[in-house]
Structure formats: C-alpha cells, structure tokens
Amino acid sequence: QKEVEQNSGPLSVPEGAIASLNCTYSDRGSQSFFWYRQYSGKSPELIMFIYSNGDKEDGRFTAQLNKASQYVSLLIRDSQPSDSATYLCAVNTGFQKLVFGTGTRLLVSP
Amino acid sequence: GAGVSQSPRYKVTKRGQDVALRCDPISGHVSLYWYRQALGQGPEFLTYFNYEAQQDKSGLPNDRFSAERPEGSISTLTIQRTEQRDSAMYRCASSLATGPQYFGPGTRLLVL
C-alpha cells in the first residue's frame, strides 16, 4: 500500500462546476497536509495546507481533513479552464519531509 | 530573493561524470529540502537541512549522492559517477522551520 494515494484521473469537469479531488494516507501519525498544483512542465505550487480536522477555505478552494478516516480532499468551486493541472497531495508524517501522491490530473472544459 | 532559485536549469552530462546542482532558498528560510521527480510521479524526498545541519538523508538513493549546505543558505546536491537512471527533475524547496514548503523551478538532469 502506497503511503499517499490519489486517483490519477483525468478528472473532467465543465467550467463553473465543483471539482472534488481526494487523497488517502496510511500513516496515522501524519500531522500536516498540503495540496500543490502543478502545471505541465512547471514546478509544484502550494495552494492549500491544513493541520486540523474539518474544513479550511481560501477563495475558491476548500481543503477538508478527516484524520479518523485518513482522508484529505480539495474542492475547487467555480472551476475554470485555468485550473486544469495536476494536483498533488502531500503529507508530513512528523519528520519534516513530505510524502507525495502521484497526483490527480484535472481537466476543466469551457 | 523572491523565490527559490536553482541552477543550472538543464544539465546534460555523460555517464560517469560528476554533477553539482545548486539551490538558493527563499531569504530567511532555515529549512531546505531536495526532492527528485520522475515524469508522471510526485516529488520523492531525498534529504533536508535545518540551517547547515543535514537532518535526514534517508532518501538519497546510494552513496553516489551527497548534499551540503555549509553556511546554512545555498545548498549543493552532488551526484558522482552519474548513471542513466539518475536522469530526472531535481527539485529544491525551502520553508520557515516546519512551515509549508515552497519549490524552486527544478534542474532537469539528463545523463547520456
């Protein structure tokens, strides 16, 4: 079992819809959780981080964390074609290094 | 600087040569990380520093790989006797202590 799992996609949504990206992790001791957006040929760009159970909202983005279920999600409201990218889930298990999933490719069609 | 910088951006080398990849973190960031990213995969941890101290090098694939950060700022990742399997994107990130990590543009290494 991989430490951080994501569906590779692609996840296709129409413009204006809500995109829901999911991530599960195996280490119950994980302390902090991050979502990075990576455009093709570019470096990962931090878009959200969450440390506590519940929801955290920032503009059109909402991160959700459920430690009991070992589940992190990212919701993107009013999806735009410019949101089309690969979204990487990363988990910090307490030793500063991040463990990444393989990423979910999101396609937002106009 | 405004962000993490890495040099060179591209490096082509012949098998058996040594290469040195450089990372300059965001000003004031005490922690610096090296990752390697294969196509279609997420970054994979190699090593990290707090100030000049290497705290974890568990991700370095073998003893041909080494890293240093002698003055607690710029870091160099060195690969000796390169092999074709070392070809990848090497990414550096920095953070304030245990805060979120911010990535640089990466160095694409191609070993022929």
Brief account:
With 110 residues, chain A is mainly beta. Chain A is 0% helix and 55% strand.
Give, in order, the helices and strands of chain A.
Answer: EEEEEEEEEEE
What integer value in Å does the Rg of chain B equal?
13 Å
Q: Which consecutive residue ranges of chain A, at least 5 long each, have pLDDT under 50?
A: none
Largest sheet of chain A: 6 strands, mixed
Q: Largest interface here, residues on each chain? A: A-B, 21 and 23 residues
Overall pLDDT metric of chain B: 96
What would you call the structural class of chain B?
A: mainly beta
Q: What's the helix-strand series of chain B? A: EEEEEEEEEEE
Tell me, briefly, the overall form of chain B.
Answer: globular
Globular, elongated, flat, extended or rod-shaped: what is the shape of chain A? globular
Radius of gyration of chain A: 13 Å
Count of beta strands of chain B: 11
Straight-line N-to-C gap of chain B:
33 Å
Beta content of chain B comes to over 45%
Oligomerization state: heterodimer
Query: What percentage of residues of chain B falls in helices of 4 or more residues?
Result: under 10%
Average pLDDT value of chain A? Answer: 95
The number of helices of chain B is 0
